Amino acid sequence: MSTSTKSASPPGVQDPPGSASPPAPVVRGGRGWRRTLRRDWQLYSLAVLPLLFFLVFRYLPMIGNVIAFRRFEPGGSIFGEHWVGLRYVEMFLSDPTFWQVFRNTLWLGGLTLVFCFPIPIVLALLLNEVRRRSLKRFVQSVSYLPHFLSIVIVAGITMQMLATDGPVNQALGWFGHDEIRFIQEPEWFRTIYVGSEIWQTAGWGTILYLAALTTIDEDLYEAARIDGANRWKQIWHVTLPGIRPTMITLLILNIGTFMAVGFEKVLLLYNPLTYQTSDVISTYVYRTGVESNSFSYAAAIGLFEAIIGLVLIISANTLSRRTVGTSLW
Known about the structure:
By secondary structure, the chain is mostly helical. It has helices spanning 30-39, 41-45, 48-59, 87-93, 96-116, 118-129, 133-144, 151-161, 167-174, 189-213, 218-226, 231-242, 244-256, 263-269, 275-278, 281-291, 295-323, and strands at 70-71, 82-83. Helix 4 (87-93) crosses helix 17 (295-323).
């Protein structure tokens, strides 16, 4: 029995085209990331300021959540005077006002998610079908504009439009309808809030979806047309699956902020007459903590809201990973 051995090629003789050279060794351990850091330090340096921002304004303030379990008095220790355990948690759980505020938060968060999440997708699909570039740019510019207005201006425009002597009531008067006090009647607040949110965010929300649409391979549309698919079937079987990862990612992020209904806009639009439907957890925490100086009680409610948001985003991410195979982590 003979054993064949592979000898090295003599000097000056090239290896045949079919022969493959052994793969380069992979550097593992500490030297790998150090080498990457030295090579791309300019790119990593761009992340320093954002990381500092989140560290100073997001993570360090979490230490203050300890006053949810300690009695805090203005002028005393920033970590509270003495330990009270779950006293403040029991207080807000047994407070009927809190549960009314909690229901309002669920209503506004749910309506915002149901209406404000799909509308940018529909608008992006419609803009993608527009072939006249000038018309497409005009619609994009008009729909993007409200995003650049401050919330104060948006709230002011909304209140002026819906005032008793505003354009909406004047238009209703032309049709013989009595004037409606939109701002003072609780049953109108949710419609006003969701409508203003759609107007402000729908156009800007299409940017990510339009960017995702450009990554879809045109050959897929060509294959669908060859198979006899009309425009609607191409959208359903090619376009929507192509932007599904973007849709799932944004949906998970929106679910994570489900409980954090826009504090500034609610604070600017609501009044004591509409507390029944407009008061949410964030505004209740503001009035309890800042106006009533019950900081420990407000911290306990805020911590409860944060825990619910964490559970929601983890649950949504897990469900998305198991059902459609797309998730944030």
